[in-house]
Amino acid sequence: MAYKEIYDSWKADPEGFWMKAAGGIDWVKSPSRALNPDRAPLYEWFSDAEVNTCWNAVDRHVQAGRGNQLAIIHDSPVTHLRKGITYKELQTRVASLAGALRAKGVEKGDRVIIYMPMIPEALEAMLACARLGAIHSVVFGGFAANELAVRIDDCKPKAIIAASCGIEPNRIVHYKPLLDGAIDLADHKPDFCVIFQREQEVAKLIEGRDFAWHTFQYGVEPADCVPVSGDHPAYILYTSGTTGAPKGVVRPTAGHLVALNWTMRAIYNVGVGDVFWAASDVGWVVGHSYICYAPLIAGCTTIVFEGKPVGTPDAGTFWRVISENKVKSFFTAPTALRAIRRDDPDGEFIKDYNLRHLQALYLAGERADPETIQWAQKHLNIPVIDHWWQTETGWAIAANPLGIEALPVKLGSPSVPMPGYDVQVLDEGGHPVSPGTLGAIAVKLPLPPGTLPTLWNAEDRFRKSYLSHFPGYYETGDAGYVDEDGYLYIMARTDDVINVAGHRLSTGAMEEVLASHPDVAECAVIGVADELKGQSPLGLLCLKKGAAKDHADVVKECVKLMRDRIGPVADFKRAVVVDRLPKTRSGKILRGTMVKIADGADWKMPATIDDPAILDEITLALRTLGLARG
Ligand code: COA
Ligand code: AMP
Q1: Which SS3 state, helix, strand or coil, does residue 32 take?
Q2: What's the pLDDT tens digit per position in 62-108?
Q3: Residue ranges of the AMP-binding enzyme C-terminal domain (predicted)?
Q4: Is the CB of 365 under 6 A from ligand 1?
Q5: Do residues 361 and 384 lie in contact, with contact meaning Cβ atoms separated by under 8 Å?
Q6: 307 lines ligand 1 (CB under 6 A)
Q7: What is the CATH number of domain 501-623?
């Protein structure tokens, strides 16, 4: 069947469509129906089913006789290691870790924070939680102790599983002091921590609280898979919103299994025995869905890559991994390709490797600029597929479903909506606009299986953030348009979220950090265009009267403060001191206008501006940083 027929068949009978997709999952108790609308506009999927995620990702493949197939390949140029783990080995390791967690009191519904680099043990920790029905929350290693503390206080974990260190090309990331600092800062204290000691750094353990990964598991009874109900939270993943407090996106168990399993064939065109690689990090949603869960659920081999697109050791690393491991579908962020292209503009490294198994390259996480797509098309000579999704959805809202039908690629568009998503472009009043007209992108409720049913412990915030602006719709926070052929174009965020190197960051959270500097009276953070990273954060600081410090010192302190409070991932390296910030007469800071000025784009004087002269001052200040050159 072609894409259109499949999409239309979903629209005609969503219940039938998802019940059929549910056939790809092993149930302890099969669902009697797909959608549960009892609490609309809050929806659940497969809520009367019973199921276990780990069984579907691991055990069922062993039971089907594929125990000797590789489940995980760890390819780590930063440690010069490469090793494989079979499904049988994975089952043994996960059952053992789950048994040890259970012996220490972790049960269905308990939260467990995972703070680990790109090593197979991170996936094992996630799967061990899933085995017990415990709810994991993975925190990205590039966040500072303070951000980890905020997450500890929000989800109140019984245990934290961490590694002794992570390895960045230019330094060792000392996870353990960050973890200890976070536990000190947090009001909630976990009962215990499990630390995976890496060779590169052995961390000091706190007696009675910390246990070493291996000794912790010594002599314990392995745990079997614990059935959970379909709507049981599989995990919580925090993501940036408008304010400083991150949003705890909840992932429901059954919908997650059904939807991810469906996407592996329909979108990525892979199945049992194929090698699939998503070059992301387990701390992000791409890592949850497409490094850990989906490839394993589908019986593929997944690659855990511990390195960077460039510099580990060179811009040929990705092509080496693809060639050596016979990767069939590969997923990365456009920024990674831009980094490779910058170092290897003519694609010389690509020629060194045999990439004949690679059928397609998938891009997501930020807007894929046409030049980058064209560069990849030219040098790889395979379909380059942009697809659009968010932490909240867990899988693609729009894509080019290669496993169903290879649709024509249109540069700058992530193609068409996937079954389950009725995507509409709305004007401010909530009315659908005509093709070609820019508007807010919204999805008609209910969202499909696997998407967020709520935010952790924050149902009101969920309703306010996503459901209240356009009643009957989920508001994506992205703006764009649809063309005459139904292709979507994602142009910008409608909120204060920026996207730096495929990482989603809140300018609101960054402003809170700057405002806490003793000399800063007022501030704004904007995302300015960056050739490599898409956007880059920039601070504008107004100092308190009488602040005698040198401006350069204040800027330096603010940069350090951001690194200490949010973490290196914020990539906050630039700020400038100004006398005043441009505002509307009602006092709203005109961030959008400043972005346009900084980027040297066309801009119009806002009708509501309080004092137009301030924009000249801002332009001059931005020019000192090499910006605002239209
Ligand atoms: N743990 C600790 N620190 C981390 C980290 C981690 N897991 N990941 C990144 N950082 C640090 C980096 O070391 C860097 O620190 P520095 O300021 O001391 O140099 C900082 O965070 C910013 O990192 P990054 O944005 O990655 O910039 P970079 O200059 O190191 O690398 C790219 C640039 C383009 C190569 C890199 O951003 C990249 O590979 N991006 C792809 C992103 C991606 O896959 N996103 C997932 C969405 S699909
Ligand atoms: P995250 O939740 O971190 O995955 O970030 C989601 C946001 O990244 C989306 O809301 C978009 O703003 C942006 N994004 C992700 N994929 C794409 C894409 N293919 N094209 C344009 N923007 C994207």
Answers
A1: coil
A2: 999 999 999 999 999 999 999 999 999 999 999 999 999 999 999 99
A3: 510-588
A4: yes
A5: yes
A6: no
A7: 3.30.300.30
